[in-house]
Amino acid sequence: MSWSRWVGRGALIGAALLACGCATVVEDDPEAAGTGSVATTTTTLPADADAGLELIADELAALSGRIAGGDGDNESIALVVAAWGSVRSEVEAARPELIRGFDATIAMAEQAVERTRPADADKASANLAEYLDNYYGRP
Length: 139
Fold this sequence. Notes:
Four Helix Bundle (Hemerythrin (Met), subunit A); globular
């Protein structure tokens, strides 16, 4: 899938989740297997770019460990994509010259999960840190 399709898909998912105001991650509960029960976790997405970017940075910082451990990486990237979808327009309005870099970084993180590549998740986290420094005007 091309980069633009990933970005479009992420923006569409984020917009849909923004419309409902929360992201829901559904996990199968092994103890409830066979009962038809499903455990759900609901996370309210950040309302502003600063909080959203902080959440994305925290999730990407932990992503390589989750990929390597095989636990929580899909939920983590779903949260990242949803959070990015909720703050992308605000980031773009503030710093339009950085938007392609942010989009590429999120796409890299998605591919890291899809391809089980913890090193790519580390690279996405490092790239995000650079874009955040630029976004906030830090040297």
